[in-house]
Amino acid sequence: MPSRQKNDEVYRLRSFAKINLGLEILGKRRDGFHELKTIFQTIRLHDTLTLTPTAGRRLHIEGNDPSVDWQGDNTIRLAFDTFGAAFNLRPGFHIRVEKKIPPGSGLGGGSSNAAVILMFLSRYYRRELSLNRLIRLGETIGADVPFFFIGGTALGRGKGEKLFEIRDLGERTIGLYIPDIRVSTEKIFSRFSLTSDRFPSKIDSFLKNKKLAVLENHLESVTFNLFPELRMIKEKIEMNFNCPVWMSGSGSALYTIAPRKDLSRLQTVFPGLLVTRLLNRKNYHRNWIGVSPSGKASVFGADIRGFKSSHPSFFKD
User: Fold this and answer.
1) Each residue of 203-220: pLDDT tens digit?
2) Residues with catalytic annotation?
3) Which domains does the chain have, with CATH numbers?
């Protein structure tokens, strides 16, 4: 939920990360993108965006991560431009970003930032946007942006913009290892080679039996060939701690879902391991999509709360 300071003119927004619970590449689309199947899952790791309205129409963005071009075409600026073009507005804001989700980690930080800004502007300007309208705006910025209007656990199809509700996994503990490596999603996909072999979907299997161990990420082989140190870290964790490790998205973040005591033991070997939790849809909504501090209704009204899957019922247990 966005919070305000006493002067009622400073807004603090949480922008949560995601992991991919499995990622399967199904083919190449006519528009040049890949057709994929994945399960998105929000986690409690988040950036904090502090917004202060200004009298003019100038947008000033700054942040603590020097690797981000804050004055260039970052996703926050693209979200402002997209919203402004849709409603003929030129909002003026000063924005400070405290970034904890590293760019190029496969955790969706930039997409999350864009979605949060679109939701904020919808509320700030009292635009009654449907979830479908927000998704259409978001997907022009990035394929992962639409998921962050929903949160929790969701099946993604198409480029990732076609979303279907899945029963939440609960707020399990997760060990997240984020090496100091920035991976280009475009580069990974450009080097991915489709094969003619057809294998049963591990994601479909997971949706039926909820066994995490069956999941796999088709992009791991490409990313690991470019960054062999990632493969070494994954293998070291799996061999010494007997727990499956996955890469999120196109990398570079690696994660395992395990009891906290096991993760504490893992931290002795990997001091940089971050222990956090999965974030279910209900708590995701409470943290951002819920009732605003002024008591006004959510930007979505009943739309997000009525979000249902169009898939067969076994997708929801």
Assistant:
1) 999 999 889 999 999 999
2) 18, 144
3) 1-300 (3.30.230.10)
